[in-house]
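Practice problem: predict the structure.
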Amino acid sequence: MARLDRLLANLGYGSRREVTDLVGRSRVVLDGAVVKDSGARIAVTADLPQRMTVSGQPLDPPAPLTILMHKPLGVVCSHREPGRSVYELLPHRWRAREPALSSIGRLDKETSGLLLITDDGPFLHRVISPKSHVAKRYRATLDRPLAGTEAALFAAGTLVLESETEPLARAVLEPVGEREALLTITEGRYHQVRRMFAAVGNHVNALHRDRIGGLDLPDDMASGEWRPLTPAEQAAIFA
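Answer:
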């Protein structure tokens, strides 16, 4: 159970005073009836967005919320980096949600593809924890043809990136063309995929993530689109 004013304030609808004003103007409806008390205690159930409206629109999904997004090129994943961020693709009030939404790992500005954004701390840490061994797959378009020796090197678990001392974990390379390959990694080091190809004398011209664990980026999801992650999709990550 949660107080209505606190619930709506945490979802970014305004301060508790502003939420009280919404209620006073009959803008909050639950199960077809206008809610008259901003201090009313509400059961926060999964179907609440189907039962409650605010200003005529379905209630935003309450926490915990995880979003599946097809990240476009040219946007960053950090609240602090300069430039347009992935959070600007979401409803404006979502930036005031509490707990705050954060990306699960990051894709750099020039990388597109599958991105997860969540306010569920335990889920976030489970995905990124080395103990979970959640793999990420990238499609890399390269500047020069593959030499043919990259797969064995990446799979050996001996490659040490420039300025580092610890070798990378084993990775799986699948060539799909003369200058294109799928690379599956289980770590998330800084610009790891780009640096791996740089280590073998190549350059990544384009990079796209299409899989996290057992979850694929949906074929019908256009760049910039997003939606809540379903329970089945969440489970697929760890399958």
